[in-house]
Please model this.
Amino acid sequence: MQEKLLGRKLTACIRTFGCQMNARDSEKLLGILEEIGYVETESENADFVLYNTCTVRENANLKVYGRLGYLKKCKEANPQMLIALCGCMMQEAGVVEKIKKSYRFVDIIFGTHNIFKLAELLYRHLTEGGMTADIWEDTSQIVEELPVERKYPFKSGVNIMFGCNNFCSYCIVPYVRGRERSRKPEDIIAEVQKLAADGVSEIMLLGQNVNSYGKTLEEPVTFAQLLCRIEQEVPDIRRIRFMTSHPKDLSDELIAVMKDSKKICRQLHLPLQSGSSRILRLMNRRYDKESYLKLVDKIRTAMPDIALSTDIIVGFPGETEADFQDTLDVIRKVRFDSAFTFIYSKRTGTPAAAMEDQVPKSVVKDRFDRLLQEVQAISTEICAAGAGRVEEVLVEEVNTQEEGYVTGRLSGNAIVHFPGGPELIGTFVKVRLTEAKGFYYLGEIAF
Ligand code: SAH
Ligand code: SF4
Ligand code: F3S
Model:
């Protein structure tokens, strides 16, 4: 009806914060919105604005509150605009109360367990008015076959499991994403087949700990078995990636399957978090420095060309200079292709938040700077060593910085910019890496 009054289609804008899980949820949410008649727009000055939030670190949380101030102004100028919030932050204790009290202009709030209800909640809001909030504590339900509007036509994330049972002591994810549950292999394969038929050639299997996939299914399946099935049963998929691998559950079977695979990318994200066995114990990670190094050795022996990336937290409660030196030691020994470095952020309700001995800000900052320097120096050296090689690249987009250039991704996940036109997008081409630029390459098509 509003569409008729306005004489145009209603527009919707989804802003996604956080990880690949949220990115995939946003594709489903956009799928639902398009199904009920909205068209997507990039601008937040839209008829419907949805923030899919993250709360893994406090920064992510503050960013959302900051932007809500801006949305308030947009809504003052355009009163029929609808504002909705969803995602991990909404599952956190106290957040919905705070929004109800201080951000009254928000129309709809829902959480991570009921994204499939978006259309219903929107209808409820339009018919009943007021703030519509629906948050579920947890769920054992997996809703299959939601409509999806993918960001890229040629690549897609695929959830293989939801939630997390690991309870690393610093992490809020198990509280906001609920208990671990795996999708059935048949459902995953059917989705991948559908994606392949729709032009997708690269998939990223998503889970907080993919190595424990399938353990709780009625008919248990290992992650390695799932990978084999996808590789064999969906011929049109040319690249398979996955995120994230917890070191404690990475099996020899997985290493063997990766080694023999033609499709699994030569890339492994293996979060270290800390190099100190003492801190790892406090973090409840269930591996230590030695076993992590041994695991890396095993992986590298099987696949010498694999690109390894990691996550590291500095400033976990009680971290001493000696603990930090252990982290640097692992970094120097493993030599990661890339590392995401984070300053420890206290998350209310997690065991680490109650630990004494929180490290002073200035000490953490100093360690963080030293860590970053080390990580970057190593990445630059590894990148430089790759120059001159010819690699297969999946072309992802037109380069916005350099006219006449496109951007593609190598099997190891590094990026290369090279001369080419939009017709190459979604295709695989052989590219010579002509120049290393620290963490990306310049290249040219190799004939
Ligand atoms: N399931 C994934 C991690 C998901 S969160 C895994 O276990 O590897 C992504 C990263 O955020 C984590 O690897 C960790 O490095 C970081 N992180 C999580 N909680 C954090 C916190 N409280 N403070 C700082 N970094 C944190
Ligand atoms: Fe958080 Fe640990 Fe679960 Fe990863 S495995 S999501 S870090 S609790
Ligand atoms: Fe953030 Fe939720 Fe992902 S807290 S990192 S969006 S699972």
The two ends are 56 Å apart (CA to CA).
